[in-house]
Amino acid sequence: HVIFGDVDTGTMKDAISFVLKANTLYDTPISLILNTTGGSTADGFALVDLISMSKIPVHTIGVGDIMSMGVLILSAGSKGRRTITRNATVMAHQFTNTIEGKFHEIESSYSSMVHLKNKFIQHFKRHSTMTDKQINDIVFGPTDRYLTPAECKKYGLVDEIIDELPSFLPQAEYSPKLKSSRRSRK
Questions:
Q1: Would the pTM count as exceeding 0.90?
Q2: Which of 12, 35, 64, 165 could form an S-S bond across to 43 if both were Cys, CB 3.0 to 4.6 Å?
Q3: Can 115 be counted among the known catalytic residues?
Q4: Under a CB-based contact definition with an 8 Å cutoff, are residues 76 and 45 in contact?
Q5: For the segment 102-120, what is each residue's pLDDT rounded down to a tens digit?
């Protein structure tokens, strides 16, 4: 399954449907190819949770841009099956939110943001080799943090940098049907 575009309700619905359907039909690994600049944390965590619950291995492949919530999805793949291409651009940063309203609403929003930050920290503790200090520096630092594919591997966000599609990817059956063209000779 290919996820190109924002992490939003539509793209995550399609990806989650794919994971759920694959779990009922197959017993072989499935693949999610990611190229996203990120988006909704709620929608992204919905896919992360489904990947974690999958009974079959989920291979994540990062290509193009892997940013923001995309980094969490990429790293959530099955251990040993999280890959990235050499030319992928990876960017991690803290999430954003707008807080406005009455004081009690601001307090509630702040509490929700602290809870979300803890979810991010727990995710990276579970799906990477980063220390608490590295998580805070990379994910919650003051600016966007661009990582090379080699740094992603170093921090345990991916398992391998690839130059070709892995051999364990399911091979598509492709048998084109050629149109029969009869040319009349005169």
A1: no
A2: 12
A3: no
A4: no
A5: 888 888 888 888 999 999 9
